[in-house]
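Marked as duplicate of an earlier ticket. Keeping the data here for the record.
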Amino acid sequence: MPEGFDNVAWIERTRQEGDVAAWLALIPYARRIGVSVETDPDDDGLRFRLEPHADNVGNVLLPALHGGVVAAFMETAATLDLMLAAREARLPRIVDLSIDYLRTARAVPTFARCSLLREGRRLANVQVKAWQERESVPVATARLHFVLGELGRSDA
């Protein structure tokens, strides 16, 4: 960020505009594994997308995505979705992640949708479902717990 850049104002502005892609652009690992976001054509929410890069493959014999890549994709989606869905602009920090790998995640485009289950004053719970061909056949589900920090403060 340039010197004198007001990150609090920028986060609040991009949040009001729903510009999750601007947030993704600042996350090097998300860019490396190929995470993007789009408006879900079947819903008014967001749908996250993971591209099937060769570097994301964990089992070359199948080929299948590495479980850590799937988990990072789901964590990124949950964090950004929470930043947008929260009642006010907050910076979530992950406390806990519980993931269920339900079937092999092949090296094809993978999608995720998030649901904010609970947002309190200091904590939030988000559920994520990841799928490939059909949303009704998820490859993984996750539940994440976050501490909600105030913008501009790192001690939250």
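See parent ticket for discussion. Residues 33 and 90 are 25 Å apart (CA to CA).
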